[in-house]
Amino acid sequence: MNVTITVNGEKTSHEVEDRTLLVHHLRDAVGLTATNIGCDTSTCGSCTVLLNGESVKSCTVLAAQVDGDEIQTLEGLTGEDGEMDAVQNAFQQKHALQCGFCTPGMVMAATSLLRENPDPTEDEIRMALKGNLCRCTGYHNIVQAILTAAEDAR
Amino acid sequence: MSILGTRVVRTEDPRLLTTGATYLEDLRLPELQGAAYATFVRSPMAHARITEIDVSAALAEPGVVAVLTARDLDDIPDRPAGAGAEPLLAGDVVRFAGEPVALVLTEEAYQGEDVAELVSVDYEELPVVVGVDQGLRDETLLFPGTDSNVVSTGGAEAFDDAAFADCEVVVERTIVNQRVAAAPLEVRATAAIWADDRMTLWVSTQNVHGVRDAVVDRLGLGKGAVRVIAPDVGGGFGAKIGADRETITVGWAARRTGRPVRWVETRNENMVGMSHGRAQVHTVTIGGSRDGRVSAYRLDIVQDCGAYIRLGTMLPNLTMLMASGVYDLPRVETAYRTVLTNTTPIAAYRGAGRPEATAAIERAMDLFAAEIGMDAAEVRRRNLVPPDKFPFTTKTGATYDTGEYAKALDTVLDAAGYEELRAEQRRRRERGDPRQLGIGVSTYVEITGGGPEAGETARLSVHTDGTVTVWTGSSPHGQGHATAWAMLVQDELGIPMDRITVRHGDTDVLTEGVGTFGSRSLQLGGTAVHNAAVEVKERARELAAEEMEADPADLVLDTENGTWTVRGVPGQGVAWAQLAERAGPDGLSADTKFATKQATFPFGAHVAVVEVDIETGVPRLVRHVTVDDAGPVVNPILAEGQRHGGIAQGAAQALYEEMAYDEYGNPVTATLMDYTFVTAAELPSFELVAMETPTSVNPLGVKGIGEAGTIGSTPAVQSAVVDALAHLGIRHIDMPATPERVWTAINEARTAQ
Amino acid sequence: MIPPKFVYRRAGSAEEALSLVAEYGDDAKLIAGGHSLLPLMKLRLAQPEVLVDIGRVRELSYIRGEADHIAIGALTRYHDLEHSELLAEELPLLAHASGRVGDPQVRHRGTIGGSIAHGDAASDVPAVVLALDGTLVVSGPSGVREIPSGEFFHGPFETALEPEELLTEIRLPRPASSSWAFQKLTSRAIDWAVVAVAVQGRSVGLVNMGSTPLRATAVERALADGAAIPDAAAQAAEGTSPFPDRNASTAYRQHLARVLTRRALEEAGSRA
Description:
The complex is a heterotrimer of chains A (154), B (753) and C (272). Chain A is an alpha+beta fold and 154 residues long. Chain A contains 5 helices and 5 strands, in the order ββαβββαααα. Chain A has a 5-stranded mixed β-sheet with strand order 2-1-5-3-4, with helices on both faces. In chain A, a hairpin with a 2-residue loop joins β3 and β4 (54-57). In chain C, α5 (92-98) packs antiparallel against α8. Chains in contact: A-B, A-C, B-C.
């Protein structure tokens, strides 16, 4: 079937197998590989992208289901000059990533959180990140980065 | 001012945060164009004889490139089929659920699982061995023809009870250090090509050289015939050391079929195929006097090996070596047995043998303290190795380089507000609060940079444009070497970090190297880089002397701006670019290898505060305070990051994680829905206190920090859970301290009272 | 992991969904958010030949205050329930419980109707609907029927829904008592409830205490008879036979039901 999705502001159109998962579609057909696959069971959140501005796990969404929708991936946060946005920047400043594998999903989850709750408490951040696993950081610096990004936005 | 010790943000991050890293699955290289996709057919049975494999239906599918089984492995050297020897693909017998039986190669990635389902394997069930107790009974042997499932033993041949004869108090207990999964977020992955009689492998690994050597050995290739490249690697935690059977099989399949092959496993495969860690059962015996002095300690280890020998025969040796921890104990006895079971093989997981040693001695100290009715921190204090005894050789043969154990303990107790915590605990007990408070204290020492004779390599080149390339034999996968190594070079050469590129992970560029594991990178790899910089600096001094027609001894490098001047002579001086030019075609570079005879012994102390809901049994970690001393810190944010991650993993072992099997050998925690990988919602922010005691083992004075957090946190958190319930008479709860396990312990204690 | 092959059909309206389901019969499965079905398909535990996607049937996504009840479209997402001002005002129990389902990503996709139709006793919202005496509105080839929530859940993953029917609306009467509470115990915050208890007034719903969501009828009876909270809560496990699993034995689940029911009743009482 044909699937048309606006990805990071650009319209894309591809012929796909009906069973194509959104995450594979983004990585293989659209060619954006920042979004990772970590668990297959919609637990780890590595594949988190924004669907019409809200975080979803793209390993548990069919490409077909989002035909006509808007998707934003990590690549879409970056400015045209390569400049990082507030969340990306805070992740670097606070050392909120080590191996970087959970990072694209973590940043998108954080972005979604801050859109819904611009001034979260530490507890709210921790609860909002429960669907994003990280094995490297113990989450400490990720929480700090999101607090910092929220503060910077004020 | 030196850049060392300052909080420099990582230079790696902008790429990882904008386009994402390039992990193996992200590779879009021309060499891998048209690669076939590999899918392993895995055994659903824990122990069975394979009576037939029918691949005809699979082969009949369009788009199937090949279906390969053990029978096709006729072009590689024979291996002695001794007990514990692991094949590439299972031959006549499968010995754990998830063992690879066949390899399917398809044109399209999406076909792999469909086709794998069409490979028909007939199994004849065999009796299953799960758990070390069953393994030790030897009623079912994993390798018929042998006389026991025990594949390795070591330490004391017989324990001597006389060691405890003069003790006023002796406590003995069997405790479990459960099997856990490393679970890096990036699963295992390999891509392989065979071209011009040469194999190139891209592997998600912690050590390209180790992978190369394993592939060369197993496939019978010449050392020069294999090149291994590591792309970005999404975490390893010990479980990506070396070449797993799947990686070697994928390489072999590329040669066999002449097609590039790429393989990325699923998480489900990762949970059963990647080595598990820990999996020891300890019987600890501790004895001493009522004034708190411990005079004898015994550690009897049974190591679950899993179905094949990966590191199951090595790990308990490390556990024995570190058995007596930070304590000056007059008599120590250790022994181990490693036993085969029908489960996923065991290998390294963050700490690898040392967390087990610490968990055992720290539990023993708690049991001893409870028995004599003394504060657990105080009992520890009375037995610590004092600072004036270093270097200190333990009864198990480890020589600790430097340590300030009492200072670490006192510092962490102070930072945690230990006395106030105890007061709060008393208040909650007095008012019968349903949320009881537990305070767990652990002290630890561990060994890092083990196997220091192997050392580490580095190459440093200053280019004619004044930039620097550093190649390191270390193999970072999140640790931040690109930043830290550049800091070391800037500090020595005065060339700013942004002109320094750090590269790693290609056996064709640095043909020798060791990799990143065992907290060895900074002390060995970092020192190699530092030494390369020193060598280059000395060469540059000579070149600058020629250029300026001065005595080399009079030349001074200004490390603030990276220029050489002659002492006492005003002027612009010479820049690095000029010297690189002058060095000629061979350039201004150095190859180094740093090796030493001594490992290092970082140490520290942790305090965990846990609330236990005594009605439901739910424990919750509410604070975790640590002192982790690994000597001088190059970059505090990197060191803290290592500690944070380690604390979380260690706490998770205490409270949440376990790879569990049912009685049939089926793994019941083979997805991340079932395996309770800890999330942000279960953890507090951590409170870290800095302490730096240098070592004299290397010129940087540094020790390793990668595993310390894990080693210190597990016993502290476990102890805190028990401590919250101590007033009920509870002395021990095995890990993970799940709500039901805690509730059961409370019930049993109340029934007993 | 990849789901096995299937044919994807998208329904633009409830009517179209019904005709697609009628066309494909037993071979078809309805998919809304997909967070129950797709993981099962990826594990190859479910292999429907046709997926009928009703995720775009916007007409079934709403929260409306009617004269004597709140009407919720079956395709209303957890996220919308969690943030609904109307629910915060009128049915805070449902808003709160919805906000504790899964994680934010799941709540951005998962729907109340999908959860109820899936019939998983470990799901939170079915027990909440049960405690609220909800009515389920179902469309099928023979028209519309209303099923009281007490008659809807038949067994593990079994409901009163016929294969060619579509759950369209959940009707929840405005509760007589404003006191409410939701107590949930999980291994990790992200996990399904080991046990959860929903209380509205003197109605008590139990999550994961058997093969279907349950009402703690013995507790409700005791409360009606004027029993004190601890005495009533002590009967929370009466008549239940929860399945033992890795997280909890039957006895532990029954214990948790008693503790969480007591806490929920006390918490609700503090809100009254």
